Design the sequence.
C-alpha cells in the first residue's frame, strides 16, 4: 500500500524536488537518475551530496566518466566547494583510479569488471557513506559487454549498497548503443528522468518526471526546471486544489462608480476577469484602475508585463491620472517585466505562486496572455497550465485580471492566439465604433459569474481626467456582430464638439 509519509526521508538537496517526492527519497535505497548529456545529472548529484554534508553525513561521489578537475569546475560554476565529498575517480586513458591519497593504475580497457566492482566495494566499505552518487552507468555497461552481465552487476551493487545502509543515486546518460535499457527501471527503487527540449526560439526547456517511487506516492507529471548559477531550480507542477484557503468573496471596487455598477459592485475576490478588445481600446488602462484602487486600500498588487515596457506603461498611466510610481516606491505594487522566451511556463507559475503565498499579493494583472503564448508556440498543454494557475489564484482569494488582445482593429475580429473566455469568471469587452465622424470606444460586460451585472453597452472615454463612462447607448447596434454602428442622435453620445481644448485618448 502506498503512503504519503514523509518520515525518515532523505532530502534531495532541492526543496522543490522534495515537495514533488512528498519529503524526499525513502532512505537506504538505490535510485536511477537518467537523462541525456546536458540535463544536469552531475549538478543534481552534487546538490544531493552537499545536503548530506550540511547534515553531518559522510558522502561519496564515484565518478567513472568525469575527472576530479571537471567536477571541481562544475562546482566552481555554482559557487560551491567539493570539501567534505570523498571522490573516487576512474579516469580515461592513462588516468589513475584514486582513493584519497592512495593510487593504483587501472585502465578501463584492461580491467576486468569484477576487479572494478571489487575496488568500488572496498572504497564504499572504507568510507562508510550514507549517501552515494554513482556517475555513470555507461562505463559499467561497456565493461559488462553484454546486457545479462550488466544486469547481474547492477543487482549485485544494489544488494551491496543495501547492506551498507546507503542511499544511492545511479546516473545514466542514456547513450547505450542498444537503446534505453528499461530493465534498470525494474531494479531501481525509484526512477527520475531529466529531459532537455530544444525549441525553435529561446532557451532550451528542461523538465523532469518521477517515473516510479516504490512504496510511496509522488506528484506525477512533468515539472519544469532550470540550471543556473547556484544549482538546479525545480518548478513543481501546480495542483490548485492543494492550496485552498478561506476568504471573503466580496466585490473588488475600482474606485470608479459607473465601472463598479456595470459589474454589480465589482468582480468578486477569488475570480478572474478577462478584458478583451482590439489594440488601443483601453484594456490596460481599465485594468490599472483596479490595480491603483487596490493599492490605495493597502492591498499588495503585482503586474506581469509581457508586451509593453514598464517605463512606457507608467508614463501612459500617469497621463490619464493613474500614478503608479508612488505605489511602487511604497512597496505595495510590484511590476515585473517578463521575457517569455527566457522562462518556462512552470517557472512563471512558480513566480506567481511565490508572490501570492509568500508575499501575500491580493490582486494580479497579466498583460497580456497573447504575448506569453506567442513566444512559446511549441509548448504543449499551455491552456491547461493557465487553467490550473487561475484555479490556484481563485482558491487563494486573489482577484486576477487577464488582458487578451483581439486580432484586428475594426470589423470582425478574432480572439487571437488563445481563447480562455470559458475559464474567466467575468468578461469585459471593448470595441471601436464610428459616430459623427469620430472613432469611439464601447464597453460592455459579457458575463460575471456569482454576481449581477449590467447588460448595457456604454461609451468609454479615456482622457487626462481619467476614465469616463456614459449612460447606456440605447441607439447603438451591432457590437456583437463584429461591426458595431451608432444609429442614434447627438444627445445619445458624450460631447461631440471638436474638443479642441480637451485631450481625448
Sequence:
Amino acid at each position: 500500500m502506498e503512503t504519503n509519509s514523509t518520515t525518515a526521508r532523505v532530502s534531495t538537496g532541492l526543496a522543490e524536488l522534495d515537495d514533488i517526492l512528498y519529503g524526499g527519497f525513502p532512505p537506504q535505497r538505490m535510485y536511477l537518475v537518467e537523462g541525456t548529456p546536458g540535463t544536469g545529472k552531475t549538478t543534481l548529484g552534487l546538490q544531493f551530496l552537499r545536503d548530506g554534508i550540511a547534515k553531518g553525513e559522510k558522502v561519496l561521489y564515484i565518478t567513472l566518466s568525469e575527472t576530479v578537475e571537471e567536477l571541481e569546475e562544475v562546482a566552481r560554476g555554482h559557487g560551491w566547494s567539493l570539501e567534505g565529498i570523498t571522490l573516487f575517480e576512474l579516469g580515461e586513458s592513462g588516468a589513475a583510479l584514486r582513493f584519497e591519497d592512495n593510487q593504483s593504475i587501472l585502465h578501463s580497457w584492461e580491467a576486468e569488471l569484477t576487479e572494478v566492482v571489487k575496488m568500488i566495494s572496498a572504497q564504499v566499505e572504507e568510507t562508510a557513506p550514507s549517501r552515494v552518487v554513482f556517475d555513470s552507468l555507461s562505463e559499467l555497461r561497456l565493461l559488462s559487454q553484454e546486457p545479462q552481465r550488466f544486469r547481474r552487476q547492477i543487482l549485485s551493487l544494489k544488494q551491496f549498497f543495501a547492506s551498507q545502509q546507503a542511499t544511492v543515486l545511479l546516473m545514466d546518460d542514456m547513450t547505450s548503443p542498444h537503446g534505453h535499457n528499461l530493465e534498470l527501471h525494474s531494479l531501481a527503487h525509484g526512477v527520475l528522468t531529466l529531459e532537455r527540449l530544444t525549441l525553435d526560439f529561446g532557451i532550451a526547456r528542461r523538465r523532469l518526471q518521477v517515473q516510479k517511487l516504490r512504496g510511496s506516492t509522488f506528484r506525477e507529471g512533468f515539472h519544469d526546471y532550470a540550471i543556473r548559477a547556484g544549482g538546479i531550480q525545480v518548478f513543481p507542477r501546480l495542483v490548485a486544489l492543494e492550496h485552498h484557503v478561506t476568504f471573503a468573496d466580496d466585490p473588488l471596487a475600482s474606485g470608479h462608480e459607473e465601472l463598479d455598477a456595470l459589474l454589480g459592485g465589482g468582480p468578486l475576490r477569488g475570480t478572474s476577469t478577462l478584458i478583451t478588445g482590439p489594440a488601443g481600446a483601453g484594456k490596460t488602462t481599465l485594468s490599472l484602475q483596479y490595480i491603483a484602487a487596490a493599492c490605495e486600500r493597502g492591498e499588495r498588487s503585482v503586474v506581469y508585463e509581457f508586451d509593453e515596457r514598464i517605463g512606457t506603461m507608467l508614463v501612459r498611466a500617469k497621463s490619464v491620472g493613474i500614478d503608479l510610481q508612488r505605489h511602487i516606491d511604497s512597496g505595495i505594487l510590484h511590476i515585473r517585466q517578463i521575457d517569455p522566451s527566457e522562462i518556462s511556463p512552470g517557472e512563471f507559475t512558480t513566480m506567481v505562486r511565490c508572490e501570492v503565498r509568500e508575499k501575500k499579493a491580493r490582486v494580479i494583472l497579466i498583460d497580456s496572455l497573447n504575448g506569453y503564448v506567442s513566444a512559446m508556440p511549441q509548448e504543449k498543454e499551455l491552456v491547461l497550465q493557465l487553467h490550473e494557475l487561475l484555479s490556484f489564484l481563485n482558491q487563494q482569494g486573489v482577484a486576477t485580471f487577464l488582458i487578451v488582445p483581439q486580432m484586428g482593429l475594426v470589423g470582425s475580429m478574432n480572439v487571437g492566439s488563445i481563447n480562455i473566455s470559458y475559464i474567466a469568471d467575468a468578461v469585459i469587452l471593448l470595441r471601436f465604433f464610428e459616430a459623427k465622424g469620430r472613432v469611439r470606444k464601447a464597453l460592455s460586460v459579457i458575463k460575471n459569474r456569482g454576481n449581477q451585472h449590467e447588460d448595457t453597452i456604454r461609451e468609454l472615454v479615456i482622457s487626462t481626467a481619467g476614465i469616463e463612462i456614459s449612460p447606456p447607448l440605447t441607439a447603438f447596434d451591432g457590437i456583437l456582430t463584429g461591426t458595431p454602428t451608432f444609429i442614434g442622435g447627438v444627445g445619445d453620445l458624450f460631447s461631440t464638439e471638436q474638443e479642441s481644448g480637451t485631450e481625448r485618448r
In short: The chain has two domains: 15-237, 242-492. The first helix runs from residue 15 to 20. The domain at 242-492 is CATH 3.40.50.300 (Rossmann fold).
